[in-house]
Amino acid sequence: MFKRRRFKQKLTLQDRLSAWVEQVQRQASKLPPGPEREALLKKARQADVANHLHDWAKSPGLQSPK
Questions:
Q1: Beta carbons within 10 angstroms of residue 44's beta carbon
Q2: What is the Cα–Cα distance from 18 to 66, expressed in whole angstroms?
Q3: Is 34 left (phi over 0), alpha (psi -120 to 50) or beta?
């Protein structure tokens, strides 16, 4: 039977997403305007929004209904 290799991430998902967003934005800045650049920027925006949503969901101001 196949055994999965498991390992613990050293960085949180949010940290990894932030680093990836910065990397993709640097890559996109080197590309000429066009569909490939727009696709990279779109993915970076989506990851950035996911980070903001996570921060919002974990904020202390947001409380569960009673």
A1: 20
A2: 34
A3: left
How is the chain split into domains, by residue range?
A: 13-56
Q: Would you say the C-alpha torsion 60, 61, 62, 66 has a positive or negative sign?
A: positive
Site of tokens 């990851």: 47
CB 56 within 8 A of CB 62: yes
Place of tokens 């999965």: 4
Predicted confidence pLDDT, tens digits, the chain (66 residues): 788 888 888 998 889 999 999 999 999 999 999 999 999 999 999 999 998 888 888 887 766 666
pTM for the full predicted model: 0.73
